[in-house]
Design brief:
This protein has 403 residues and is of the alpha/beta class. Helices cover 49% and strands 14% of the residues. Helix 10 packs across helix 15.
C-alpha cells in the first residue's frame, strides 16, 4: 500500500466500498524503506475508513525462496484472520494472493472467492525477462503456475479483468466447465476529482511553467511514469524528434522516479537538444499540476501477449486532465478506447510514417477548455473511481446472493 500502485489502484476502491457498508481486513506486503516513510499516512487512511490493515514485510532475496516465504506468511495470516472473522468474501489481487484465496475457498465452501487477476502475470514474468524458460528451474515454475492459473479461472466465484479483449483468452485458458464464467471488466481507474484541470487557474499554469523553465508559448509533450522494463524510451524519443522538426518551441517533460542519466545520453545519441528535456521526480500529489502544463502526451509500451490484459493507469490520469494521447496498438482496450473517443492517435508501428501522422493528429487538438472537457468527460464515463467502485460493489452483491 506504500507503493504508488497501492495508493491509486487498491486503497481508493476499498475506501469507497467501505462507505457502502463493507468491512475490510487488508493483507499487504510492504518494502521496508517505503513502509517506514509512509506507514502513518496509510494507517490514517485505513483508520478513517474502518479498514483493518495487516502489513507484512516484503522480501526479495534470495530469489524464489523469498517469494515462497512470503506466500507462507500470507497463507498463515489469511487463515488466522478467517478463523477469527469468518469472512463472507476473499478478494485476491493477482495470482499469488489468488492461490491463497483458492485454498481458503476449498476449506470453506461457503466463502466467496474473487480472483482480481490484474493481467496475465505468468506471461508477464516471461515476456519481461524475469523468468528465463531456458533455465529448467524457471521452466518448472512456469508450468506449475500455468496449472494454477487454470484452477483460479475455473474455481473463482468471480473474475475481474482489466480489459474486455482479455475475456476470450481467459475463457480459452479456463476450458470447458459446468459453470459459466462470471466476470466483470474494471480498468485501472482514477480519482477524477483530483485529476481535474479545472482545479488550476491560468495563473497556476503560468507559475508552474515558469518554475520548470517552460516559456508561455512552448508546446509541452509529457511522459508520465516508469521508463524501463515495459516502456520504450528510444521510440518515444524518436517520436519527440519528429515533433521538434514540425513544431518550434517544444519541451519534453518526463515525470519519473528513475535515474534519468542514461535517458539523457540516449537523447544525445539521437541529436535531441537535452535542454529541451525536463526530467523530474514527483510524488503523487504533485502529478496533476505537472500534467496540467502539458499540451499532449506519448507513451509506447512493448507489444506482447500479456499486454492484452493491460490497462495503463497513466491513460486514465491523462485523459481525466483533458490531455490528448499518442500511444501504440495492441495494449489491452487502449486502441479501441482512443479511436472510438477520438482522444488521440494510435501508432500501429514504430516508424517515421506513424510518427508523422501522430504528430499531425496531436497538433490538431485545440488547446481549449471545451476540448479538454470533452476528453475529460470520456475519462469520467469510463475510468472514474466511482464507476470502478460501483462495479466492484455490484459484483460483491451478486456473488453474495448466489447459491
Amino acid at each position: 500500500m506504500t507503493d504508488p500502485l497501492g495508493q491509486s489502484q487498491v486503497l481508493p476502491y476499498i475506501c469507497e466500498l467501505s462507505k457502502k457498508g463493507y468491512r475490510f481486513h487488508l493483507i499487504s506486503f510492504e518494502k521496508p524503506d517505503k513502509f517506514i516513510q509512509l506507514k502513518s499516512s496509510i494507517q490514517k487512511i485505513c483508520d478513517d475508513h474502518s479498514i483493518v490493515w495487516h502489513p507484512q514485510p516484503y522480501t526479495k532475496t534470495p530469489p524464489i525462496l523469498s517469494t515462497i516465504g512470503d506466500i507462507r506468511v500470507m497463507y498463515r495470516k489469511a487463515f488466522e484472520l478467517h478463523k477469527s472473522e469468518n469472512f463472507s468474501i476473499v478478494h485476491c489481487r493477482s495470482y499469488l494472493p489468488g492461490m491463497i484465496g483458492r485454498l481458503l475457498k476449498k476449506k470453506n465452501p461457503k466463502l466467496k472467492f474473487i480472483f482480481d487477476m490484474r493481467g496475465f502475470w505468468i506471461d508477464e514474468r516471461v515476456e519481461g525477462n524475469i523468468w528465463n524458460l531456458k533455465n529448467p528451474i524457471y521452466r518448472t515454475i512456469f508450468n506449475y503456475f500455468k496449472i494454477k492459473e487454470k484452477q483460479l479461472f475455473r474455481e473463482a466465484d468471480a473474475v475481474i479483468s482489466l480489459t474486455e479483449i482479455a475475456i476470450p483468452i481467459i475463457k480459452k485458458i479456463r476450458g470447458n466447465s459446468v459453470r459459466e464464467l462470471n466476470y466483470t471488466v474494471i480498468p485501472c481507474c482514477v480519482d477524477t476529482n483530483k485529476f481535474n484541470f479545472n482545479l488550476f487557474s491560468d495563473e497556476d499554469i503560468e507559475s508552474k511553467r515558469h518554475e520548470l523553465g517552460i516559456d508561455k508559448n512552448d508546446y509541452v509533450l509529457i511522459y508520465l511514469g516508469s521508463i524501463s522494463t515495459w516502456y520504450l524510451p528510444e521510440e518515444m524519443l524518436d517520436f519527440y524528434k519528429v515533433l521538434i522538426q514540425r513544431k518550434n518551441n517544444t519541451k519534453f517533460l518526463i515525470i519519473t522516479q528513475e535515474d534519468p542519466t542514461w535517458l539523457i545520453k540516449l537523447a544525445e545519441t539521437k541529436n535531441i537538444p537535452t535542454d529541451q528535456l525536463i526530467i523530474k521526480s514527483a510524488n503523487r500529489n504533485e502529478v496533476p499540476s505537472l500534467i496540467n502544463v502539458s499540451n499532449g502526451t506519448v507513451f509506447f509500451i512493448k507489444q506482447s501477449f500479456s499486454k492484452m490484459a493491460s490497462s495503463p493507469t497513466k491513460k486514465a490520469e491523462l485523459m481525466s486532465m483533458g490531455i490528448p494521447i499518442v500511444c501504440n496498438s495492441k495494449i489491452g482496450d487502449t486502441e479501441r478506447i482512443i479511436n472510438e473517443g477520438k482522444t488521440g492517435f494510435v501508432c500501429t508501428d514504430f516508424d517515421q510514417n506513424n510518427y508523422e501522422k501522430a504528430v499531425k493528429a496531436l497538433l490538431s487538438f485545440p488547446n481549449t477548455k471545451e476540448e479538454k472537457t470533452r476528453i475529460r468527460n470520456q475519462a469520467i464515463a469510463q475510468f472514474s473511481l466511482l464507476e470502478g467502485s460501483n462495479r466492484y460493489y455490484e459484483m460483491y452483491e451478486t456473488i453474495l446472493h448466489q447459491e
